[in-house]
Amino acid sequence: MTESLKILQETRRGQVEKDVEEEFKALHKEKMAQKSLALQANPASGIKKKTAQVGWDMGTGDDEDGEHEAFGFKREKSECKLLKSQIAVMQEIFEALDRFQDGILRRS
């Protein structure tokens, strides 16, 4: 890849990042304005009711798999159904968002 092509890609990437960030900020401001208008129209809607927390008993775990197999089904490992091009695009987006190159979102 030539130097001029690299420079062109970097400037376009920078411009796209800037445009996307500005668009998200504008959407956020619009959403907050709508929320404040809704609260002004009906101030009681901003009060949240206290909800009861429900505790779930997850069982022993290993024994649970045996119970399911008795019914004719078992756990299966999930399968990645993405195309290689989709994975590559997602990787580029991740790298662009990882500004400090610390890989904090990367799975091990």
Strand content: under 5%
Describe the main β-sheet briefly. Answer: none
Measured between the Cα atoms of the first and last residue, the distance is 31 Å
Number-wise, the strands total: 0
Query: Spans with pLDDT under 50 lasting ≥5 residues?
Result: none
Q: What does the overall shape look like?
A: flat
**Number of helices, counting only DSSP H or I runs of 4 residues or more:** 3
Mean pLDDT: 76
What is the H-and-E element order? HHH
The helix content is 55-70%
State Rg: 24 Å
Instruction: Kindly name the structural category.
Output: mainly alpha
Describe this structure in words.
This protein is mainly α. Helices cover 57% and strands 0% of the residues. The protein has three helices and no strands. It has helices at 3-41, 62-70, 84-97. The protein is flat, with a radius of gyration of 24 Å. The two termini are 31 Å apart.
